[in-house]
């Protein structure tokens, strides 16, 4: 018999950071170095606690494990100009654990974060700098993002900018949400 897991989307808290960073490392294909985790949690807790700049959400299964997370807010300075146009807000991170991908969790996290950013910050437009993978590009295109520019930020990191200029709230979500 198939057992369904209840997935809850809620605002992230500092205690979620170790699991969030592990999911990010796994998604980027980089090893998590335990000796550095304490400093990384401290660095990221500054972002998490900066509600005037960023909004964080996590997707949590009913047994308490974080299976995905996202962050949105004011655009990072190096990301604000895309194809000679200024953008003021972005979703900087969205990561889903491999075993939970293709279940709609990323889409639901996106909708909740998108609505919160629109309501809280009231942006004129929106940008996402996506990793250069087919899966990520398909995801953002399905969400209505228009690919605008490819750029290399680091030596190895080629990113594609997806932009939104017609910003509308999503009507509902299919997951349990506790803000």
Automatic annotation (TrEMBL):
Residues 7-165 form the N-acetyltransferase domain. It comes from the Eukaryota. One of its GO terms (molecular function) is acyltransferase activity, transferring groups other than amino-acyl groups. Pfam families: Acetyltransf_7. This is N-acetyltransferase domain-containing protein.
